[in-house]
Amino acid sequence: MTHLRDPIDNVLSGVGKRFLGQLKKLDIKTAKDLLWHFPTRYDDRSEFLKVSELKKGGEATLRGTVQKTTTRRIPYRHLVITEVSVVDEEGSPLTVTFFNQPYIENTLKEGRVANFSGKVGTYKGKLTLQSPIYELTEIRGREKETQHTGRLVPIYKETKGITSRGLRFIIKPILENLEVLPEYIPQETLKSLNLPDVNEALQNIHFPKKEADALRAIKSFSFRDLLLLQLRNLQERAKLQKLEAYPIAYDQKELKKLFSFLPFELTASQKKSLDEILNDLERHHPMNRLLQGDVGSGKTIVAGIAALVAVNDKHQAAFMAPTEILACQHYKTLTKFFEEYDGGIALLTGKESKVFYGENLEAELKKSELIKKIASGDIGITVGTHALIQKQITFKKLGLVVIDEQHRFGVRQRAEITKTTSITPHFLSMSATPIPRTLTMTIFGNLDLSLIDELPKGRKPIITKLVDPTNRDKAYQFIKERIKSDRQAFVICPRIEESENKDQVFTSKQKAAWEVRAVKVEYEKLSKEVFPDLKVSMLHGKMKIAEKTAVMKAFVEGKCDIVVSTSVVEVGVDVPNATIMLIEGADRFGLAQLYQFRGRVGRGEHQSYCLLFTDSKTENTKARLESLIQAKNGFELAEMDLHLRGPGEFLGDTQTGTPDLTLKALQNPELLKTAKEKAEELLQNSPTLEAYPLLSKRLNQFREEVHLE
Ligand code: ADP
Ligand code: MG
């Protein structure tokens, strides 16, 4: 009997090493991984034709009894032809031909009944099936359930060396031999939705008898994850309601004073977000809020004001950033705007520790001393990296924690910072990742949302153009002129796709290699042929960190005119002098990604441009790129992208640990609603889920698996 946790090496003992290796490349290591590698679609091979009904060029499935099998070799051509003569149930004969598979003789022996499924061709002037998929329908006189023919046949994501046929071949016996899986979703819930239990669903998602079975199975798996997501969200919200936080008060006069420090007025959505945050801070329960806004929309200042409000009310605030550079940037922003503030703003990273006491009073001090000052409550705001969550750091009265680019921090690290206090601080996460609202509300449904959906006034919009391939030279000419007037340019290349098979998946290593190749080719062309007089450099993921840093540094310092790069251009780079973003193969990128590339320019006073190139002439491509030109902000665009390409594009499954199916299900508002209702129902019956021990256990696992924050 096979158990889910069994490693595939044990389960597939008869399977070749190479095949196992390929499976592992797909991250399939256990029986569970294999069984949860769901088909992406099904081919309907359920209808049997008779020989008299075959048409040249069509696809056909046919059942026949073998009359005779002969194999002959064609000398000098390394060709072995096996001809299998069969008759269908009406007695009409047909010759089925196979090339270089002489062992077929041993299987398709006289008298055996088999299904054949494939393309109808001609051979010696007669109709034939050429190298079809074949499968015996009886074993030792007993009818056997088929896997590849005469039914709905599952088609899987394929990779080199792993075909759908191969996967069916190994999945089927495992399913037949599988332990009975415990069902963690309560029977009443499944029944009320007419969904199959996990055992039935697993059989039917791979080998459905009819389409309706497949659809129910898919729905059942989608529902499972959505239910878990909703349960997590609701439970986390309920948990926070029980925790105690310091209520942080603000008064309008103080707030006005803080505003007066700023050289600009907050935008309407900054004000609205700040309002939402300050209202949360007044409550006795911890805030758990996500502040979303495009790059440059001014999130830092909103969070900064919230931090100052906390400090004014005699609390401390911590400001965490994922990298050293960002931490320093935040520190600089806060100390620049609030230089009259003398409550102490500290910077604590792996490298630096210093405190700012207003009016240019900045002191470097030993890390240990800074830590002491934080513990004694001397420091109001501490900005830092992971260094902030080291064991030895404690706060006296931590009221607010701000976390920038929150998805890069694990839940555990977040818990870490609150370990020392019985009072939970308020949490504010910030993110510039343009995730559509519909997704955010589920995936981050445990958080409340504030959205900054406009840029500060006075920014020059970036002129975005879809350039016709015939105007390529003109575009290069334009770039030359801009660079003559001292501007700089980015050129982004997509990887070269190697395969036309859309079901094929590639390993990230393969992808990276192609990307590098594309960049090298483009770099050669631009540096030698197009811009021989300009300084062109290259940036890609295979370079050492020091090399990358050197290239970026030269670019920042204006010592290089053009950087040709893969999609990995540093997130944090801020080069106000770069005003041109040229994107090759623009159709290969998701809209959200294109949007982020474009965000690298338009940061300075000069007019910026984004030039899009594509070879694709389809309406869909045009419509997508057109929406990049139209969209008002990243979120609107992400919403469009969701409809055009599906959610996997910005929430790759590797990033979230969320399987494809769930991502698709997130687009199904009906199912989302149902999942939420059922989650509420279950929690109403049993707030801690103790009545459903299996579900409760699964939910805990799920939390570990899915790192969404
Ligand atoms: P992000 O949301 O990407 O973190 P920042 O907070 O870094 O954006 O803000 C980007 C820039 O815009 C900063 O230089 C900041 O000072 C400036 N800024 C923020 N809010 C406004 C505003 N309302 N008007 C003008 N400039 C602003
Ligand atoms: Mg920011």
From TrEMBL:
The record's Gene Ontology biological-process terms are:
DNA recombination; DNA repair
Q: Which Pfam families does the annotation name?
A: DEAD (PF00270), Helicase_C (PF00271), RecG_dom3_C (PF19833), RecG_wedge (PF17191)
Q: Does the keyword DNA damage apply?
A: yes
Q: What class of enzyme is it?
A: isomerase
Entry's EC annotation: 5.6.2.4
Q: Which residues form the Helicase ATP-binding domain?
A: 280-452
Q: Does the keyword Nucleus apply?
A: no
* Family affiliation: Belongs to the helicase family. RecG subfamily.
This protein's name: ATP-dependent DNA helicase RecG
